[in-house]
Amino acid sequence: MVTVHYRRWCPPQSPLRIEFPPELLHDVRLQGAQRERRLPLRWIPRFNRVVTQSSGLLFGVRREDEVRVLTVRAAENLEPVGTFVCRARGEVFLTDDDLANFEKHQAVLALVVAGGQAGFFVREPDGSVQAIRSHEEFKVADAAPRAAPARTNPATELPAPPPREWWRVTLPWKRIGTCVALLLVPVGAFAYLRPLLPHMPIAMSIREEAGQLVIGWNAGALSEVSRLEIQDGSERTILMLPPNASSATYGLQGDDVEVRLSTDSRMGGAHWEAARFVTKTHRRPTASSALQDRIRKLTIEAEELRRSLAYGQARTRELGVKLAAATREP
Fold first, then answer.
1. Domain spans of the chain, in order of start
2. Lower CB density within 10 Å: C or N end of the chain?
3. 136 C-beta neighbours (distance < 10 Å), count
4. What's the pLDDT at 228?
5. How high is the pLDDT of residue 10?
6. Mean pLDDT across the chain, nearest whole number?
7. CATH superfamily to which 2-40+49-143 belongs
8. Residue 137 in 3-state DSSP?
9. CA nearest 84: which of 62, 53, 61?
């Protein structure tokens, strides 16, 4: 039994389904960070500034209309499946040079990372490439693993003690009003900046218990609109989840089940995570005891009907012989 976590890009307009590990975006951005700038950006005149860009190949495996991109480095048993472009800032699109590189390597997909946004570009069934805009963009922070926060000295985080003179005098009403206004500023700032805070990870997990697939996740990461999609062979199940739900149970039918959990983000985009459950144990559907009893009774009735039919045919032949003997002339 193997559980594989990955990210999936599969908008309805795309002819390809693309899977990639979260570390892929980190490796792509690392390739772009290796290019050093000779002068600091603030020393370069604004009209002479250029967007830092790097490019390379993506390696993985392909099976029909599904591509799994695994790394930016060549490895054994992996084939080049596409190209990538990484820009320090800007929009997610393919330039003429990017398209030329795409055609040069006969790629089937291209990944563009521009600042905090990313998106895939795929070759359409007629061989064309929509280079102006990706079928679906996503935030790098939502798909890439987040680095652990830096350790800080607890002593430096303690607030400074208030001045002693503050408490020795009676506060006038104007000063009290100023203090109340200052206390309300953080509350208003939190409400205003809340959409910009990072997403809480979904942290989806799946396991099997007595033939049932138990799917769990972090309930605090889901908004009011959440969608759970389960692909079990040719069967597809869609569940709309309430805000406080933290798990779901599904009866397994096959040996390869794909699960995708998506929810609307605070900025209006898609926040999602996918996983696959694979087992080598082959399940055979078993009939219930009531159904087995019904099949047994029908089998007995069929045998009785066959015996009755054979007896009737023999009786008919016997009566035919007697009738012929009675009507024979002397």
1. 2-40+49-143, 172-285, 291-330
2. C
3. 15
4. 85
5. 92
6. 77
7. Cytidine Deaminase, domain 2 (3.40.140.10)
8. strand
9. 53
Give how far the C-alpha of residue 197 lies from the chain's centroid of Cα atoms, to the nearest Å: 21
Strands 66-71 and 17-20: parallel
Is 2 a residue whose pLDDT tops 80?
A: no
- Other beta carbons within 10 angstroms of residue 3's beta carbon come to 13
Whether 318 has a pLDDT exceeding 70, the answer reads yes
Question: What is the rounded CA–CA span in Å between residue 307 and residue 313?
Answer: 10
pTM score, two decimals?
A: 0.46
Q: Which residue has the higher pLDDT, 307 or 188?
A: 307
Architecture of domain 172-285 in CATH?
A: Sandwich (2.60)
Burial of 202 from C-beta contacts in 10 A (0-12 / 13-18 / 19+): buried
Structure tokens at 124: 């359409």
* More confident position, 302 or 236: 302
315: its two tokens: 């009786």
Strand 2-9: give its sheet, edge to edge.
Answer: 137-139, 117-122, 109-114, 79-87, 53-63, 66-71, 17-20, 2-9, 270-278, 256-264, 226-232, 235-241
State how far the Cα of 112 lies from the Cα of 293, in Å rounded to an integer. 62
The pLDDT value recorded for residue 3 is 56
Pairing outcome for strands 79-87 and 117-122: unpaired
Report how far residue 271's alpha carbon sits from residue 265's, in angstroms, rounded to the nearest whole number.
Answer: 6
Q: How far apart are CA 82 and CA 60, in angstroms?
A: 9
Alpha helices in the chain (DSSP H): 23-33, 96-104, 140-143, 165-168, 173-193, 289-326
Note whether 80 and 59 are within 8 A (CB).
yes
3-state secondary structure of 128: coil
Q: Is the pLDDT of residue 72 over 80?
A: yes
